[in-house]
Amino acid sequence: MAAPWREPLQRALKQNAGSRDSRYLQLATVRPDGRPANRTVVYRGFLADTEVLTFVTDSRSRKIEEIARSPWGEVAWYFPGTREQFRLLGRLTVVGAATEDAALQKGRLAAWKSMSDPGWQQFLWPQPGEPRGGDDSIFRPDPPTAQDPVLDTFCLVCLEVEEVDHIQLNGNLRHVYLLQPAAAAAAGEAAAAEGAAAEWAVRNVNP
């Protein structure tokens, strides 16, 4: 059964499809020193038949270390056309060249093949955050093709959502979705709950 927040999110994406900005959202992580880090990323779809959100990043970016130290992240996603916001909290996984999970690598390959030439080129640029040299031609490399092997610098980032806060300013509505242990586990029946899937609870709260 699909997570109950997926349908409202997909509806918002469809209703705001006329704006390219509808696929941009902000991803917050935690730096090694405990301070927050935030940046805009591009939504790349769900991972296969799951509720896992995906983005892409460079293996040399700072967020790789941040996620390795603290896998928790949250995205804030505002849709101006329908005046609604989704905040999605969960655990982040980076899928890189060394990742062994076949399903995750399949998702990484699919994301790679969906990239444009300018998108591919970025993964051939020099080390992010390092001092810039004087030769700007290095930022215009010949792009790889969809048939070329995936560059080692290309990573898929997966967000496995555990909490969603959805507010609709039109109507002043707000719903919070929480992923909770199966009912048997909540009742203390550990043996019955072992291996059971978690369940989503929905709360209608004040905006």
Automatic annotation (TrEMBL):
User: Under the GO molecular function aspect, what terms does this record hold?
Assistant: FMN binding
The record, for InterPro entries, names: Pyridox_Oxase_Alr4036_FMN-bd (IPR024624), Pyridox_Oxase_FMN-dep_Alr4036 (IPR024015), Split_barrel_FMN-bd (IPR012349)
List, for all copies, the residue spans of the domain called Pyridoxamine 5'-phosphate oxidase Alr4036 family FMN-binding.
3-95
Q: Which domain of life is it from?
A: Eukaryota
- Protein name as catalogued: Pyridoxamine 5'-phosphate oxidase Alr4036 family FMN-binding domain-containing protein
Q: What is the lineage of its organism?
A: Eukaryota, Viridiplantae, Chlorophyta, core chlorophytes, Trebouxiophyceae
